[in-house]
């Protein structure tokens, strides 16, 4: 509305000054605003555009535009602005004007303490803002020593799906860290639902950001990725394809390759199972023994009374390699190179 007042006053002034050379430039600028206001559903704004367009067409002397209006106070005000008629004002006599206060010399206090005392006496803040009572729990706080971390109040999730969802937390650091620190243990014991979300979980760990400056973030993330590859090697081709993806940064490619090497080494190692000695129980002496069993009884007695001066050889621990059946899952995805494709180091 204020802009409409200015436009009408400016147009009337140009018309009174007979500055016809200015009309073309002003009309090109004003017509854009008129078109916008004509398409507005609000009645007041639409009538403003109609009235400005009609007034400008009359001042320019060309084809005059005419519109139908709804009578309201705003339309009357625009007509007065167009015609140059001002609203009649009441005459004010000199007797009604209150006399101006006499000049009084006031000496301001020099110190800030005097200002504080004056504000304390004259201020009405106590009525508007009641005093806030600080609870005892806020008064008593413990100052942490250097390097110490605040106690985390969020409990660790019980299910690996909840743990995966909490990794997307962006505001509460304790919720994120509770899930992040509990994740590796859940993967190692193959928590319920791990096989179903292993692929998405590994991808999420690759692109996971350290939003809360978590302690040992990179090491724990790497351990979680290695655990995913060890406990679920079938996800290796998916991570291998990500190495050659353009959406993957160089740091993420290097992280995946490091996890491939560590997981392959862990799968190639022998399980830590102590060799157990086989104990053969001798048959108990029975009166009804067959006559052919006496040779076995004699040999057993001789072995029990025989002393050897050499150390007994430990039995060799033989176990199937866990890496052999899944080796192709680690190798083949890294051998798939696309011709004429160059990855950027960024």
UniProtKB/TrEMBL annotation:
Instruction: List, alphabetically, the Pfam families matched.
Output: Telomere_reg-2
Q: Which family does the record claim for this protein?
A: Belongs to the TEL2 family.
InterPro entries documented for this protein: TEL2_C_sf, TEL2_Regulation, Telomere_length_regulation_dom
From the UniProt entry, list the residue stretches annotated as the region Disordered.
85-105
Superkingdom of the source? Answer: Eukaryota
* Gene Ontology CC, one term: cytosol
What does the record list as GO biological process?
'de novo' cotranslational protein folding
Name of the featured protein: Telomere length regulation protein domain containing protein
In its UniProt entry, the species of origin is given as Haemonchus contortus
- GO function terms (MF aspect): Hsp90 protein binding; telomeric DNA binding
Question: Where would one find the signal peptide in this protein?
Answer: none
Telomere length regulation protein conserved domain location:
157-264
Tell me the lineage of the source organism: Eukaryota, Metazoa, Ecdysozoa, Nematoda, Chromadorea
């Amino acid at each position: 509305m204020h802009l409409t007042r200015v436009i009408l006053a400016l147009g009337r002034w140009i018309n009174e000054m007979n500055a016809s050379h200015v009309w073309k430039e002003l009309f090109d600028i004003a017509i854009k605003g008129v078109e916008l206001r004509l398409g507005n559903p609000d009645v007041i704004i639409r009538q403003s555009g109609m009235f400005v367009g009609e007034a400008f067409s009359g001042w320019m002397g060309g084809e005059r535009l005419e519109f139908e209006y709804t009578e309201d106070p705003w339309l009357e005000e625009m007509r007065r602005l167009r015609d140059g008629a001002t609203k009649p004002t009441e005459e004010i006599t000199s007797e009604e004007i209150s006399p101006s206060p006499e000049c009084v010399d006031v000496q301001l206090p020099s110190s800030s303490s005097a200002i504080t005392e004056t504000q304390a006496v004259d201020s009405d803040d106590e009525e508007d803002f009641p005093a806030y009572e600080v609870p005892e729990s806020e008064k008593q706080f413990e100052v942490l020593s250097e390097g110490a971390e605040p106690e985390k109040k969020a409990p660790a999730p019980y299910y690996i799906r909840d743990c995966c969802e909490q990794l997307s937390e962006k505001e509460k650091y304790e919720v994120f860290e509770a899930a992040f620190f509990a994740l590796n243990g859940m993967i190692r014991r193959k928590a319920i639902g791990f096989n179903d979300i292993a692929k998405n979980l590994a991808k999420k760990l690759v692109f996971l950001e350290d939003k809360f400056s978590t302690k040992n973030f990179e090491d724990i993330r790497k351990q979680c990725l290695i655990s995913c590859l060890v406990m679920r090697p079938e996800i290796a081709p998916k991570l291998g394809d990500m190495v050659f993806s353009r959406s993957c940064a160089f740091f993420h490619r290097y992280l995946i390759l490091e996890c491939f090497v560590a997981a392959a080494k862990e799968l190639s190692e022998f399980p830590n199972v102590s060799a157990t000695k086989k104990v053969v129980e001798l048959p108990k002496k029975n009166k009804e023994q067959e006559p052919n069993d006496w040779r076995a009884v004699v040999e057993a007695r001789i072995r029990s009374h025989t002393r050897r001066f050499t150390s007994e050889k430990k039995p060799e621990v033989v176990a199937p390699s866990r890496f052999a059946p899944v080796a192709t899952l680690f190798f083949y995805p890294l051998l798939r190179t696309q011709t004429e494709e160059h990855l950027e180091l960024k």
